[in-house]
Amino acid sequence: MSECRHTVVLRCVDGLLRDALANWIASLPGYLVAGAAATGDGLLRLCTLRSPDTAVVELRSAAPEELEFVGELRAVRCEPHIVGLHRALDARSLAFLHHAGVHRLVSTRFGVAGLRDALAEADEGWRPVVPGHGLSARELEILALICAGCSAAEIAGELGISPHTVTNHKRRIFAKLDVQSRTQATAEVGRLGMRLPGQQTRRPNGEAPRNLTKRERDILDSIARGESVRQTAQALGIAIKTVQSEQRQLFSKLSARNRPQALTNARGYGLVDSN
Q1: Which of 33, 112, 223, 233 lies 20 to 30 Å from 4 when distance is taken between CA atoms?
Q2: Which intervals hold domain HTH luxR-type (predicted)?
């Protein structure tokens, strides 16, 4: 089978439906789900970072803000084929959405058959996205290792490149994600529902910890927002040393050694929302 795969991103507000759709599409031969966002802003960011071939979008109305969003989606550089999912919109609303730029509208009342047909239709006009923008394949590899808590030296050893090269890639990754730290990068990956190399089915070993204290959950929520240790201390009104002490216990329970790995493992256990 060809190494080229049809890349899909999606937007769906409901977390369970979002995950179910993403996993179902990813199970189809020849398809790769690059990310699944809860918001329009998140989907637009995914299109910029991953240059998808198709965007699957849950549409609940033909309100002005939805029509504006479709227009913004049509304007992104990669020009994805837009498949709109709706429950039971009337003909007038469907006409407005089609005029705004949705290529195919599919009712979810009839199961996944309609979506499968829409993806096949998009695949008929598929072409590999021209490289040159978004995250490169190497940057995605490095980002996945950053989220796993690896240091620059460990990433260099894993990929057979120099730490200096890793640092340069990391600088470009942070600029593209508009973040300043590894924790912020990991948080942004979760917010956008990005699927990185090797993470499609990854789950931490063992059972999810069920004995997190309230303070540990507060710290975990702060990490999920991409905050630093100092920002966590300020948000919770406690000393930095207290945060460091409490998060050591949190890391132990999550089998993690730092904030990015703790957040990635917490997501794998279902302790933190993906978006």
Answers
A1: 112
A2: 128-193, 205-270
